[in-house]
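Ticket reopened. Same input as before:
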Amino acid sequence: MTAKAVTLAAAMREICGACDVLTDPLELRTYECDGLTSHRTVPALVVLPETAAEVAAVVRACAAAGVPFVARGSGTGLSGGAVPHAEGVLIVLSRMRRVLEVDPVSRRAVVEPGVTNLAVTQAAAPHGLFYAPDPSSQVVCSVGGNVAENSGGAHCLKHGFTVNHVLGLEIVTPAGELTWLGAGTGATAGYDLLGAFTGSEGTLGIVTKIVVKLTPAPEAVHLVLAAYDSLEAGGRAVTDVIAAGIVPAAIEMMDALSIEAAEAAVHCGYPEGASAVLLVELDGPAAEVEAELATVRKLCEAAGAREIRAADDPAQRAGIWAGRKSAFAAVGRLSPAYIVQDGVVPRTALGDVLARIAALSAESGIRVANVFHAGDGNLHPLVLYNDAVPGEAERAESVSGAILDACIEYGGSITGEHGVGVDKSRYMPKMFSAADLDTMQLVRCAFDPASLCNPGKIFPTPRLCGEVPGHRRGPRPAPSGAEIF
Amino acid sequence: MSVDLDVVRKDLVTACGKVRKGKAADAGDGGAPVPALVASPGSTAEAAAVMRVAAGHDLAVVARGTGSRLWWGTPAARCDLVIDMSRMNAVTEHAHGDLVARVQAGARIGDVQAALARAGQEIALDVPGAASVGGVVASGLAGPRRLRYGTPRDLLIGITIVRADGTIAKSGGKVVKNVAGYDLGKLFAGSAGTLGLITEATFRLHPRPAARAFVTAGYAAVPAACDAVAAAANSPLVASAVELSRPGPGGPIRVGVLLEGSPDGVAARAARMAGLLGDGVVADAPPAWWPGAPQAGPGQTLIRVSFWVSALARVLDTVDAAAAQAGVSPLITGSAGAGVLYLRTPAEGLLGQPGAAGEAGGDPEWTADPGGTAGQAIPAAVAEFVAAVRAAVAGERGAVTVLAAPAAVRGELAARGGMNGTVPGLALMRAVKDQFDPGHRLSPGRFPESA
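Engineering reply: fixed in the latest deploy. New output:
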């Protein structure tokens, strides 16, 4: 089978230059998946444009030929949002990695999509500013990918998500036209397409420039670690901190299994034998943080902490955070394979849902390590299994799905920050009605009537634009290769 | 309207029960058409039934909260039916442990805030208490605290809407962290009733600050004022608002900073902020000139200028030059630290001397201006002013949007870039409108037809 996309190779070389167009099967294979390795598709063609004009020309060529295309940043996504299309072009934006401008007085920076999240903060730091969204992958993940996924991070509890920190986007529309959404000022006439585009998982166009908001670096940062003999006790501390009217920068919790894994991996020195470790980070003006720190310590103690540590210097804080930040990778030591979940529940339902997860684990014999953003109810259960044992992967998948069902049942969400991608599109009808999904499709149809831009993501059964609601076609495009899903 | 009024009325009564004939007052202040009928649904289901009837009879529909800003922007060109949301005024859910509240669109913000305050919480928007939740979301209204908390779109975590054809749809939910599906709330925030009817909104809440302080200072020169704005907004003292007020072009400039937090923390921060401003005065209540959310009275033109803060001095100079050229004298206020200023020209016949109005203290309402005979805000002059500011600010990556204007000014503006000037992404906005409201029956003519 020769995909139509391959016939575009010559045109793409004209646009991007010969060395920026990949057709070699081995090279193509490098791009077969993103951070979610369970979904793999080798693209027909890979292009690596270096300018917005090149991206636009590439997209125009795809649009003219009716060839689907998928944008990819650093490929760290955890929902398969950047999984290529077997008959499509993968547009890799990693060569567009210039910080174009930092305006410290305006607290704005303009960056290209391939710039890493951390690089923005590094460019802003000399001016006493930082870029607030900080997904755990911030060393490698790209700002363009952050825009696509509306990335959060541990500190979004207080500082907000990518969508709260992006003020303007230059995009290439699915028809191949360059346009701006938002003017970089946070106040623009007309519809907030900037907001609607952010978090659309690459399905409404490709970002080529991003105007981000920078935030004054906090004067004081304190990190409190509290160890508990039960998750319930840790949960009580969280409830009491919130009830005291404190909005910490981050509240994270880990259970015994994830503590054990982190300890083995990075020797983070968390209190031995703890059933739960709670991390509360406070940031802000020194005069506020000192008072909040005293309150948080008191509340953590009152909830039954067996040990409390506090750190205010960057090295100590980094040491404590290392345990939390390594948790996903660390469970690799406990189990040959695992699923990272990303469900959300109202914070007050955390206790009930954790109990449900424990019960699911006990019933199935599948171990689940819990790492979660306790402040906003975003759970990252790590569902451990051995793929060498027949049937275990399926049981793990079923536990993972049951966890999402519990999240929906308690009024939460199937994804807090990783996105729907290809991984969770089948859960969308559990969270949203057919009318809800149909209404979202109106946005899709306005941007991408031909359904060529990252097709097959987010929505289980996209509607043909112009079609009467209720008359649906199958997944577009129909899988013709073996391994699309 | 395609059929007999009585038939439509009967169908509407079946849909929601509360239906009456339209009155002049239903059109608001800005010369919008008087509706034939007004329906007041009591639930999202009734609202959907009303919208289905409207679709069936091809009615032009205008959604109405409290009507306070119905005349803003370009008023609807046609209106057969006003959907009055005032009966949907409940706080449906307040999960205080989750810092989340779900409210119906017709609820007044002031009533909602009072209910949330019982748990020590709030929606962090400083907008007039009389405004409805739906109206605030649909107009994207925000006051000085936008610097720290953003605008309605930043606080909205879920929305329920009724589409033009009567389909009920929701997006988001009741958890703050949620990236499942497209965020229709963003699209509807600021959509001015042109994409669908908002019936419910879910907000993330903040704890009400235990203490606040206002630090203010006055400046005779533009550069000193701009330095103060930048120093305050970029300070790690975390300002909730950095406001500016200038009673007229060339006049003295006041800068005010709002700090919120614990009593001790705020006191310490205010003392330091006073030093940053040079010679700041600390008070626990807002100064009389504190702008609040942008507002406009009948006959006044309200203009929003958004820009990069590093261009503030040039924007102020531009406004001066354009005002002198056009012969108008706008009041200049707004969230300078967030890169947003509002220019308000007086109503016709009430133009004051440059720098004179507002100096008497209190909210500088132009209607209280004693020197009201000094000139006239001739519509053509206002339009010329807008066009001149727009042309200059375009080079600063800024935008000039006329938020409200009397019909005569709107008419003059038509040939001068309209109310919005160049709107980035307009072609996509038109496509979105066509998808959501293919018959262009929802507030027809307001947007994007007017752009």
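Residues 432-479 of chain A form one domain. Chain A has five domains: 4-92, 102-216, 220-328, 335-409, 432-479. Please confirm and we'll close it.
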